[in-house]
Write a structure and sequence with these properties.
The structure holds 2 protein chains of 2 kinds. Chain A is an alpha+beta fold. Helices cover about 65% and strands about 10% of the residues of chain A. Chain A contains 10 helices and 5 strands; from the N terminus they run αααααααβααββββα. Helices cover about 45% and strands about 15% of the residues of chain B. Chain B is built from 25 helices and 19 strands. Chain B is globular and about 80 Å long. The model of chain B is unreliable at about 645-670 (pLDDT under 50). Classes of the chains: A alpha+beta, B alpha/beta. Bound molecules: flavin mononucleotide, iron/sulfur cluster and FE2/S2 (inorganic) cluster (FES). The site of FE2/S2 (inorganic) cluster has 12 residues of chain A, from helix 8.
């Protein structure tokens, strides 16, 4: 009975199999339909499917290996640059953060292997210093100066307005990973206090009323960038 | 490139600097760049190509006029050299047409020189005018009046009258400066105009009764080449700033002991905060037998509202390196580190470049200037931890560890970096060393007060009219710094207090403003000299709020190693929060004092020991404000939050800087 039912289906399913050859999502869909319908993957399909899965897995493995070896190569390069320097850990972390915008976990693990230093000790250092980040930065950065001069001239109000608008606190990134909100201590433009830095551009004498406008401009620039 | 020899240095010293006849110099420091200095540079370069001009386009760091960023300096043959502030790309390209092609100075952007002259030997070609009362609304009519009078006396073609952006004199009515001699008159009346034109401009006679006699309060020793020298060029430093001549003198004319003796004569005290005698620090480090000694430049600049050290590192990096070399020679150190905040990428870049250049020319290496002195310097980045400004924490950080302080003694001069004797000096301290070696310790000690010699750089910010870097001899009063140099409080509001020393310092109320600054006087007032942050506050600023701001900073930055600081700071902040919400109780003040005392006594490092200072000093001078919160309760909080909001808004409006081209019409509108 099973085989009787599956034969015409196999014919019907040539197209999905065809699709699955090129498209991971289609492969998954095919598997799902088969399992739903039969409770298992019928023999007529299983050879073909396992071949497909093996190909995909192999490709994934290659990507991962490539990623690993890039990470390894990068870390090795950073370490080589600082190899003979005593106390090099912090400088290497700076180099890593410069490259990635944060210190990714895989990189920290690789660094631990490369330096022969316990991962816990690396994290102990990373977490001590505010400058090192463990999360990837947002696509855009909005940074409010919270130095003394800016504070006196109302940076707290600016920060509150931004928090409300973005729905995140300082040090956090919006859920869509678009905007990262942060504070900084004196960027040396006290003459322009209160100052806000948006994607590296410093704005002076910023007013609470301006905040929305700046964010709208940022979002628009996003849309232009992704047609 | 060849290593420099002492003979090369001597030859450079004898050769005068020749600049091209026409140049424009753009001040490209972090503050300037943030305000658009790079765009200005680009616009100047484009205009130069487009109009096929040959003026030299030069780069420099900052002269310190943050209020006017971006700032450029222009030299045109036959014209007085001038600084222009509040530039932007459009004004820059207009400036080329006006100043370099039509040979006319540009209105509304000039910052007049503070080096005011006393004689009119050279014929007057330009008159800078500025109404210094309030926002200067009558500047334009002053200009017209002068123009009319010049015309009447048939001098209209010879002399240009220019509206200045700033003349460095405040609330002294109408002020004019006659260029190129820079004779300056203040408080001039309508009737004086004809007299000035006849006597001074036509006749070349100085009107002593009108002349502004108050000398400039500033004395630039540390900052003397900032804004002039190209921070990216060793050659420029060598030629323009007599660079490495102090090192040559130290290596060839002095023994290390004599260098220390010279420093002792100079009586230089550390500019990083505590004011420890620099000569003594070097001597202690030198006296410690060891195979290796280190010198560290502390460029961690932790005060969250100060930027002196960054500005010096960015504007004149070689002077700090030269200072480090001399320090190293004096104490027998062969390795040095610049510990600089990672948040200061420009400073890092410029110091790294300076080190590279010095290495290339043999100013760093195994045999510096052929004198057998070996030294090398490296940069290490801070990573956003205020506590790493503390010496033992800084050392831990350079060693690649968490920056937790350790108990002293042993002091770093005994057991420092990698266990070796180490001297840690602040940026400004090291930058003071080359001038001392060049001009002598006695010359340096000739400035300042008996206990605090020399000059001090302050970053004056907050509710001040002109936020800027100021370098004054020790002993200058706070009032002179804030009122005479920086123009007093913005918007004509009333000054309330000044905060010095950042998170480790305290507030000084207006009644003590005539105190001459020195390590001792500031300490007596419950504050400290600190590294040079000076925050000006007006009557609308709440002292409880300011205390809370600094305390929160310290609590955030506490490394948590010892309980008095970790727990005490947190509790203190809780109490202050409660008070400022109107939920304080009568016993809170006593409790605050108890916690402060415990923190001061029992904290392991300077952070915890000094964190109570902002709280204690506001309590000392502004107890009323705490009382008002405690006694007034939530009703009081509601009342002040209602009154504060509109006031802040209108101040914001008033301070809005007119955009280029907008100034003239704005002033006109204000007048009519
Ligand atoms: C919490 C704390 C932060 C400090 N921050 C700085 C700083 O940012 N820059 C600095 O030069 N000194 C700082 N100091 C003082 C230094 O520890 C050290 O005394 C100074 O760099 C010595 O240099 P000097 O003798 O030239 O002043 C700090 C001290 C403490 C306790
Ligand atoms: S006083 Fe504060 S910053 Fe200093 S060691 Fe103790 S906890 Fe750390
Ligand atoms: S405090 Fe914000 S720029 Fe200095």
């Amino acid at each position: 009975m099973k085989s009787a039912a599956s034969v015409p289906e196999a014919e019907q399913s040539t197209r999905p199999v065809e699709l699955a050859r090129h498209d991971e999502a289609a492969l998954l869909e095919l598997l799902e339909t088969l399992v739903q319908r039969h409770g298992y993957v019928p023999r007529e399909f299983s050879d073909e499917v396992s071949r497909l899965v093996a190909v995909k897995l192999e490709r994934l493995r290659r990507i991962q290996a490539k990623l690993d070896s890039t990470i390894r190569r990068d870390v090795q390069q950073h370490v080589a640059r600082w190899r003979n320097e005593e106390g090099n850990l912090i400088m290497i972390l700076h180099a890593i953060q410069n490259q990635h915008g944060y210190v990714p976990r895989e990189v920290a693990m690789e660094l631990s292997r490369e330096l022969g230093v316990k991962l816990a000790r690396i994290y102990e250092v990373i977490t001590f210093y505010h400058y090192f980040k463990l999360q990837p930065p947002g696509a855009h950065n909005v940074t409010v100066c919270n130095g003394t001069a800016c504070y006196l001239k109302g940076s707290t109000d600016l920060l509150n307005a931004l928090r409300t608008e973005l729905g995140v606190a300082e040090g956090q990134t919006t859920a869509d990973r678009q905007i990262h909100l942060d504070t900084v201590r004196c960027i040396g433009c006290c003459g322009m206090a209160p100052a806000v830095v948006i994607d590296g551009k410093t704005l002076g004498h910023v007013k609470v009323a301006d905040v929305s406008g700046h964010l709208v401009a940022l979002k628009q620039s996003n849309q232009e960038a992704r047609p | 490139m060849n290593a420099l020899t002492p003979a090369d240095l001597e030859a450079i010293a004898r050769t005068p600097v020749v600049d091209p006849p026409e140049w424009v110099r753009v001040q490209l420091d972090t503050g300037g760049i943030a305000a658009g200095a790079e765009l200005v540079y680009g616009a100047l370069a484009a205009a130069r190509t487009e109009r096929q001009l040959s003026f030299a386009l030069l780069r420099a760091g900052s002269v310190g006029y943050s209020f006017a960023d971006p700032v450029i300096e222009v030299q045109d043959a036959g014209m007085p050299r001038v600084l222009y502030g509040r530039m932007n790309a459009a004004v820059a390209s207009h400036l080329i047409d006006e100043h370099l092609l039509a040979h006319r100075l540009l209105d509304d952007h000039i910052i007049a020189t503070r080096q005011r002259g006393t004689s009119l030997d050279t014929a007057v070609t330009h008159v800078l005018v500025r109404d210094t009362s309030g926002e200067g609304s009558r500047t334009e009519s002053l200009q017209s009046a002068f123009n009319a009078e010049l015309k009447r006396q048939d001098l209209g073609d010879r002399v240009q009258v220019v509206r200045a952006l700033d003349v460095g004199i405040y609330e002294q009515g109408a002020v004019v400066q006659l260029l190129p001699g820079a004779v300056t008159y203040a408080n001039i009346q309508e009737a004086d105009i004809a007299l000035i034109v006849r006597e001074s401009i036509a006749g070349g006679r100085v009107l002593e009764n009108l002349r502004w006699q108050t000398p400039d309060r500033q004395k630039r020793i540390v900052l003397r080449h900032c804004g002039e020298v190209d921070p990216d060029s060793l050659d420029d430093y060598l030629r323009r700033a007599a660079g490495y001549q102090a090192l040559r003198r130290a290596l060839f004319e002095f023994t290390p002991e004599q260098v220390i003796a010279e420093m002792k004569t100079a009586a230089l005290r550390g500019r990083g905060g505590a004011g420890f005698p620099t000569a003594l620090k070097w001597q202690l480090t030198r006296a410690q037998p060891a195979p290796q000694r280190y010198v560290i430049c502390n460029g961690d600049e932790g005060d969250p509202g100060a930027f002196m050290d960054r500005s010096v590192l960015e504007s004149d990096p070689h002077v700090v390196l030269e200072g480090m070399l001399i320090a190293a020679y004096a104490m027998g150190a062969s390795r040095g580190y610049f510990y600089i905040r990672a948040e200061y990428p420009k400073a890092v870049e410029r110091i790294e470049r300076a080190i590279g250049q010095a290495r290339e020319r043999g100013l760093l290496g195994d045999n510096i200037l052929g004198r057998g002195f070996a030294f090398d310097a490296k940069v290490r980045l801070g990573a956003g931890a205020f506590v790493c400004g503390e010496e033992t924490a800084l050392i831990a950080s350079i060693e690649g560890r968490r920056g937790s302080p350790t108990p002293r003694p042993p002091y770093p001069s005994v057991r420092g970096l990698w266990g070796m004797p180490t001297a840690i000096n602040n940026v400004e301290t090291l930058a003071s060393v080359p001038p001392i070696l060049r001009h002598g310790g006695a010359w340096f000690a000739g400035h300042g007060t008996p206990t605090s010699r020399g000059t001090k750089v302050f970053a004056v910010t907050g509710k001040v009219r002109n936020a800027q870097l100021v370098e004054v001899p020790m002993g200058t009063t706070l009032r002179q710094i804030i009122t005479d140099v920086c123009g007093g409080v913005a918007d004509g509001r009333e000054l309330k207090a000044v905060q010095t020393g950042g998170p480790s310092g305290g507030v000084i109320p207006v009644q003590h403003l005539d105190t001459p600054v020195s390590y001792e006087t500031l300490q007596e007032l419950g504050s400290i000299m600190g590294s040079g942050g000076m925050l000006v506050m007006d009557k609308t600023d709440s002292m409880v709020d300011v205390a809370k701001f600094y305390l929160r900073f310290c609590v955030d930055e506490s490394c948590g190693k010892c309980a008095p600081c970790r727990i005490g700071g947190y509790q203190l902040l809780q109490i202050l929060e409660r008070i400022s919400r109107g939920r304080g109780s009568a016993s809170d003040v006593a409790q605050i004092r108890r916690i402060c005392l415990a923190m001061q006594r029992a904290s392991l490092c300077g952070l915890g020991q000094t964190a109570p200072n902002p709280v204690l000093s506001t309590l000392r001078y502004f107890n009323d404000e705490y009382k008002a919160f405690i006694e007034g309760g939530p009703a009081y909080v509601r009342k002040i939050s209602r009154t504060a909001a509109p006031a802040a808004k209108s101040a914001d409006e008033a301070r809005r800087v007119p955009a280029a081209g907008e100034t003239a019409s704005g002033l006109l509108a204000a007048k009519s």
